[in-house]
Amino acid sequence: MKKSLVSSLAVGALAVSLAACSSGGGDGSAASGSSDDSSGASSGSTTITIGAAPTPHAKILEFVQDNLAEQAGFTLKIEEYTDETRLNQLVDDGDLDANYFQHKPYFDSQVKEFGYDLTALSGVHIEPYALYSKKVDSVDALPNGAQIAVTNDPVNLGRALDLLQNNGLLTVADTGDKDPTVLDISSNPKNFSFVETDPAQLVRSLDDVDAAIINGNYALDGGLDPTSDGLLVESGVDNPYANFVAVKSSRANDPAIVALNKALHSDEVKQFITETWPNGEVLPAF
After folding, report:
1. What pTM does this model have?
2. Pairing of strands 46-52, 211-214
3. For 92, which of 172, 194, 251, 283 is 20 to 30 Å away at the CA?
């Protein structure tokens, strides 16, 4: 995942927050889309304030806003977050109407840990994980004892280890824990050492380590392309890590939310994804 990164939208205001999630969420302008609005999206433009990662999430939302939202009867207010750690809390608290940044294993872990009353809608896209290096140009060239940077997020750490295991570089013991850690590695023939790093810092870490396994959106933002730069690339086939929109459970059947999810699963969005990322940097999940 190496390649990256709203302007004012004709149909709705676009707020861009490049600060941490603690800088705040939506402004409550989507209240007209709540479940007690019986007229729903069909009664006129309903604003949905949605927090999203910049790439590819916000780009996909911008396409929907520019091309599909007005006809469907809603307006998107898109707020970008480079620090996504509070996006579920912001939706649960009602500061945002929705978010779009995560996959199901991460979502499930957040709901379990914090007790959020959220609903995951159906998957929109997949950002394949990849292993990158500035020091070697093939996996075989990784030295014995190579330092590999991985995310410090437990769910995605397991995903990173899966990438290495699926390519025969190590073995992870089956401990019954769906989120394995480096302590669960049972075979490590090349004696890799692992540096656990905040996912937003993984691209920068490439200067200091032999290789790094980087989340798709951060890789894209950092100018990395999994298909041309990745030494190993995760398969998109039957991939459980599709990203989706999440909302308060009480809002899941709101007409505007339903209309947004339908738009995100349209043929137009599928074509936009495949044309914008033609080399498989981002894949449709539907």
Report:
1. 0.73
2. unpaired
3. 283
Residues in the chain: 286
Confidence (pLDDT) at 3: 32
- The arrangement of secondary structure in 130-214, i.e. its CATH architecture, is 3-Layer(aba) Sandwich (3.40)
Domain borders along the chain are: 21-127+240-284, 130-214
Distance, CA of 185 to CA of 194 (rounded, Å):
11
Extended beta strands in the chain, E state: 46-52, 74-80, 98-103, 118-120, 125-126, 130-132, 147-151, 171-172, 185-187, 193-197, 211-214, 232-233, 243-248, 283-284
Q: How confident is the model at residue 51 (pLDDT cuts 50, 70, 90)?
A: very high
Q: At the topology level of CATH, where does 21-127+240-284 sit?
A: D-Maltodextrin-Binding Protein; domain 2 (3.40.190)
Q: How far apart are CA 261 and CA 76, in angstroms?
A: 12
